[in-house]
Design goal:
3-stranded antiparallel β-sheet, alpha+beta, 4 helices
Length: 87
């Protein structure tokens, strides 16, 4: 099973980072207001970044790493195409 770490850009230009093993289902949940309290009122959403991991543990570790980054470091991920796989 593949896990995806993803970053969404919300309508207020804020960034939301999460993980899932079913990206389409999770995005639909976000879009309908059932995905996370943070994204419920910040729609529409656009996926800006995604990378695959083999285990949930690896994805959780990477999610924590990304969440600890400042905004400019997260934005740099979007432009660095060599280090990730689009979701």
């Amino acid at each position: 099973m593949k896990w995806v770490v993803y970053i969404l850009e919300c309508s207020d230009k804020s960034l939301y980072t999460g993980i899932t093993n079913d990206l389409e289902r999770r995005l639909e949940a976000h879009r309908t207001g059932r995905g996370a309290k943070y994204t419920k009122y910040r729609r529409p959403l656009m996926i800006r970044y995604g990378e695959f991991h083999r285990t949930k543990g690896a994805a959780l570790s990477r999610e924590a790493e990304i969440k600890s980054m400042n905004r400019s470091e997260k934005l740099a991920l979007f432009s660095d195409k060599s280090d990730h796989h689009p979701a």
